[in-house]
Write a structure and sequence with these properties.
mainly beta; 3 helices; about 240 residues
């Protein structure tokens, strides 16, 4: 082999394969936590959520997502992970429950208000829901859902959240002033759209996010209650 041919071969970049995640047929629970760095009651809830990193059922039996809300930012500490859209999602849940009030920390499991101390994340035997498959290359997500049963004219909607983990925040103002907080499964960017379509999803430029994961769930179009979920850790 000529030297220049060898150099050309060595210079070819290695293209990483897209990440792919698939649920089993049994329903996987979507666990949401609405939280804020400006809320003094939230660190214990976030600690509990973070401990799910080592739980054997992670991604296979449940998918956790922490949505940071912005209504506590007025207390003197602007939460860099909070967005108005995440706050609106919590208000949408509250409206579905027949109440107009919201609070933190607030856990939601499969669209229903939930308290971890009173029940397990998943049932002893989850009912069959169908297979949810997602492929993600770092910029584009594509997901499909094959339900166990489908009604006539039923439309589905794919939701995906790019998550940050192993995040450390030093709080200097507000209710948690002086505390060092650790966050996992933090929603950084969220997208939704029709199944089997390309959905643009990229990580925002937020410093101090050493690890990423992907959470994907499917609902009937226009609804909040998930039918199936999947996800997993992303390669560095």
């Amino acid at each position: 082999m000529k030297p220049w041919l060898l150099f050309a071969a060595l210079a070819v970049p290695v293209v990483a394969e897209p990440a792919q995640f698939t649920s089993g047929p049994a329903r996987v629970a979507l666990v949401e936590l609405f939280t804020s760095e400006g809320c003094s009651s939230c660190p214990p809830a976030e600690k509990w959520l973070g401990e799910l990193r080592d739980a054997p059922g992670l991604w296979r039996e449940f998918v956790p997502v922490a949505f940071h809300v912005d209504y506590w930012n007025r207390l003197g500490w602007p939460d860099r992970f909070s967005t108005r859209d995440f706050t609106q999602r919590q208000y949408d849940h509250a409206a579905a429950w027949g109440t107009g009030s919201v609070y933190t920390p607030c856990f939601v499991r499969d669209g229903a208000e939930w308290r971890p101390a009173t029940s397990k994340i998943t049932a002893a035997k989850n009912p069959a829901a169908g297979a949810l498959t997602a492929t993600y290359d770092g910029t584009v997500l594509r997901a499909t859902f094959d339900p166990v049963a489908r009604g006539a004219g039923e439309n589905f909607e794919i939701h995906a959240a790019l998550l940050g983990a192993a995040i450390v925040s030093k709080i200097t103002r507000g209710e948690n002033s002086g505390a060092t907080l650790r966050h996992d499964f933090v929603a950084l960017a969220v997208v939704r759209g029709a199944p089997a379509t390309d959905l643009a999803l990229t990580a925002p430029k937020i410093p101090g996010v050493p690890r990423h994961a992907l959470a994907v769930w499917v609902t009937r179009k226009g609804e909040l209650t998930p039918l199936q979920a999947t996800g997993g850790w992303l390669a560095p």
